[in-house]
Every structure is written in C-alpha cells, then in structure tokens.
Batch of 3 targets.
Target 1
Amino acid sequence: MSNAHIVKSFDEELAQIENLILEMGGIVETQIMESMQALCNRDEELAVKVRKDDKSVDALETRVNELTLRTLALRQPMARDLRSVVCALKVSGNLERIGDYAKNIAKRSLVLNEATRIVSAEKTINRMSKLVQVMVADVLNAYVSKDIAMADELLLRDEEVDHMHNTLFRELLTYMMESSSNITPCMHMLFIAKNLERMGDYVTSIAEQIHYLETGSIPESDRPKSDMTSQIAG
C-alpha cells in the first residue's frame, strides 16, 4: 500500500469521526434549547423528548470511541495525527457530558411543572442557556476549522456564564430565606443553573483541546474561573 493511499485513508477516517462529532454536537445544541423550552413552557412532552434524545448522543459517542481506537490501533499515528485522534476522543466525551446535563435539566423541569414559578430566575437561566448554546456552536465551528483564536476566546467567554451563575445563586438564596415554600423550586433551579455552568466548563475543555491539537501544548495561562458559589455564605 502506497504512502499516499495510507494518508488518504487516514484523512477519510478522521473526516468520518469529525462528522460523527458534528452530529453529536447538533443533537446536544438542540437538547440545550429544548430543555429550556420545556422548563419555561412547562412542556412535559418536550422534556421527555430531550431525555430520549440523550440515547442518540450516547450511541454516537460509542461509535466515535470505536473508530478512534481502531484508527489508533491500525494507523499508529504520530505527532499531529495522534493529537487529532486523541482530541476527537476527548471532544466526543465532553459533548456527551453536556448532553447529560441537558437531560438533567429536562428531568428537573418535570418536577418544576408542579412548583411555584420564580419568573426572574427562569429568565436568568434562559439567558445562561442561550449563551451556553452559542458557545457549543462556536466551539464546534472552531474544532472543524481548527481556529485557535476562536477557541482561546471561548476560554474567556466562560467567565460570563460564571458571573450569571453567581448572581442567580444569591438571588435564589434570598427567595429561599423569604419563604420555605420556595425551597424546593429554588433548589431545582440551583441545580439547573449549575448544570449550565458545568456545560460552559466542558466547552472550555474542548477549546483547550483545539489549542493543544494545533500547537502541541495547552494554553499557557490558567483558564479564567469566576464561579464563586462555594464561597457565598448567604
């Protein structure tokens, strides 16, 4: 087998893996959007759909894992080629985790259907979700185009998600102190906000992998982290 043929076959395998990752990403983006619609519209049917769609994400991750491991075993790539395969493996894992968080939001929305609405908190959470959804779309674009500048910019953008999480944490604590009847819905809202904050973290993890893929090193500066909820006393 000629070297040119080997290179072409490897490139085709990588393209197949990337297409699967993009398919995963598209489903995950929809999960984020629909989980929030289910929450805000009290849409039980949509919440159930989000949870079912997670099986598709899991199946795609399994397929990516199989293809990447097969490629590693048969091609034994080196240098950047090796980083490409390892990066794909990690990106798919991060997307799967983001999908899990969207599924959890949908699950909690079903409980909140029967609870007192906290409209201001819902609006903040909705803004957080839209920001995270755009971050997921942008990091997938950065992954396909191997755009380091966009990937590095996403590391900074995650700070806004953290700040919104901090603000919402304080707001919900206030509601819980005002009335015991607010405790249950507020706790679920806190978990939903935390899920969104963690999604942002996984986006930045993907961004770091893109940087590593292109440069062979992780970003020099520490990832900005502004989540202060563990230090808020109430």
Note: The domain at 3-231 is CATH 1.20.58.220 (Methane Monooxygenase Hydroxylase; Chain G, domain 1).
Target 2
Amino acid sequence: MKNIILLGPPGAGKGTQADLICKLCTIPKISTGDMLREAVASKSGLGLKVSNILDSGGLVSDDIIGSLIKDRLTKPDCQNGSLFDGVPRTLGQAEQLAEMKIDFTHVIEIHVEDQIIVDRMSGRRVHPSSGRNYHIEFNPPEKEGFDNETGDPLIQREDDRPETVLKRLNVYHEQTKPLTDFYKNLSNIGTLKFFKVDGSKSVDKVFEQISNQI
C-alpha cells in the first residue's frame, strides 16, 4: 500500500506528476478541488454547506475538508492507498490527517524556484470556452494570440499575471514551510519517507526522480 502526499507551489507541475504516480501505483488521486465539486454535485447536507460557503466567497474550513477526506477514503478504490494532491495545505490539515491515523508512506516536495514559476505561469494563454492551454514560449499557438481550432482570441487569466503569481507563491511559502518541517520530523522518527525533487526539469526527468524513490 502506498499513501502519498504531493507538495509543491502553483505551477510546479503537481497535476501532471500526480497522474503519472497514480498510474504507476494504481491508486486514486485525492484533491480538494475534486472533493468540493463532488460534494456540491451530491447536494447532500455537507454538499449544500460547501456550496453556500463557496457561493459567498468564503474559505472552506479544515473541519469540512477533514470530513470530505474521511468520506473519500471509505471508497473501494482507496484500498491500495491514495495520492493527496493539494491536501494538506495548512499545518492544521496535516495535524487532522495525522489524527485520522492514515499511514503515509511518502511525502514528495516538487521544488521549483519562484522566478521559473513566474515565467512558466505568466506565459500561459487560455481559450476561455474550451480551456485549451498554450504557452507563448513552450507551446505557442499557430497564430500569436489566437486559438488553433476556432481562431478565437486567447486570454491571460488573472491568476497567471506575474503580480498575482508572486502573491500566490508568498502564501504558499508561508503555509508550506511549517508543513515540510512537520513531515521531515515525522520521517526522522518513523517509516515515512520524505524527499524533494527538482521540478524545473522536464516532465519525464521529474517523474524519473520520483519513481526511483517510490
């Protein structure tokens, strides 16, 4: 069984690596976003509570995230373990997971320097109606500023503007330093394996670093 936590800043490539790891280990990905969307769609009591919080622009509490995780882990596809992507985000959430007695086997931190992240994310362009992504340097459209399939104008999302990316990175560093220390300490006293990989390399090279460790 493998229970894995994947840490890393926005734009580090966590989503891509999460999919590759899940395929390698035959385990499901557990992410806050997916759980919140599923809760809202279910229209259960908890789902309606989540929907009201999100509609009002509020932050979903650690207690609610904890309840969603407990429910998700009861599903049959989690029998061989699971990969946590974007959870935990805070020390409070990490402590909650510890109280659940989840036997985490690996914590992986994907490390990328801030400037590389800013360059990666600020170069992204999106086709709003389809969600197709381009990058002005790494994956440019055939005609600059326009979608390949429809010819519609591409946009730069507010989240991808350099000043917004820097704010998100600052929040990440504030929240994550205590998290990495928490899991490093656990790895020193138990069987948990904590390791860091260089996320600035190609997708294949990053996955090679990870697969060699797990």
Note: The two ends are 11 Å apart (CA to CA).
Target 3
Amino acid sequence: MTTRMQVTLDQEQHHRAAEKAAALGVSLAEYIRRVLAADLDDAQELGGDISEIFGIGDSGGSDVARFRDEYLGEALAEAHAHDGPSS
C-alpha cells in the first residue's frame, strides 16, 4: 500500500534535488523515496531512538572528576612504592 503526499520545497531545494535525481537517472519522486529510506535505515541502525547516544560514557554516578586529585595521588604513591628506594 502506498500513500500519496505533498511536500513543499523552496526553489533551491527543488532545483538541487531535481539535478541530483537526473544525475542518478531516477525521477524526483524516486530520489526522495531513496533519501527517506536511507535516513530511516540509519535511524533504525541507531536503535530508532537518537536519545540512546546521550549519556555515552556516563558511568551512572562516577566520582572520578570530583576526586581526581586524590585518585591521582594514590596512584602515584602506589607506583612510587613499587619502584623501591631511589638511588
């Protein structure tokens, strides 16, 4: 089943889309269908919900930024302790 719809483009968009369609050897309608299908496929690959990418790297409550100096000091002290006495 197909659905007929009307889309309004400004002159520049229409001109550029028509040129692109002609270069591909397809109708303007086919070009628009392909662009739409590609965009929808990309969204589906992301899980269909763009909000999924927000919070990437969020540990859910890490305090590393707040206590970075203390953690760095502990790591350096431990590294120094493993080096043994310096000469």
Note: The CA atoms of residues 2 and 56 lie 38 Å apart.
